[in-house]
């Protein structure tokens, strides 16, 4: 599922995972999300960490939760499209930075 790293908080990595699942359409609008307890067990993390991730996803409008009802992926297509654009921008920024580093390294190596 997720391989956690130590560079960022686990709850942020869980949020990033679900953003990717939503953008890639592996999770559909309106689809029921796994329970927090189930996710905590599967991901082998503290249930409070999963709760924090869900709280964050609710705050940014990716997930909706009713009273005593399972959480669901937002059905707000505009919100999903905004998320998709942000993901593409971030990917392009990361790729651009890596390309610039590669070019710089290549230039340094060619002068040796």
Q: How would you describe this structure in keywords?
A:
2 strands, 4 helices, mainly alpha, 112 residues, elongated
Largest sheet, in brief, is: 2 strands, antiparallel
Instruction: Report Rg.
Output: 18 Å
Q: Give the count of helical stretches.
A: 4
Main structural class: mainly alpha
Measured as a percent range, the helix fraction is 55-70%
Report the principal-axis shape: elongated
Strands ordered across the widest β-sheet: 1-2
Could you tell me the mean pLDDT?
Answer: 91
Report how far apart the termini are. 43 Å
**Secondary-structure element pattern, one letter each:** HHHEEH
- Tell me the β content: under 5%
The low-confidence runs, each spanning 5 or more residues with pLDDT under 50, are: none
Count of extended strands: 2
Please tell me about this protein's structure.
Helices cover 62% and strands 4% of the residues. The model has no long low-confidence stretch (mean pLDDT 91). The chain is mainly alpha-helical and 112 residues long. It has four helices and two strands, in the order H-H-H-E-E-H. Strand 1 (63-64) and strand 2 form a beta hairpin.
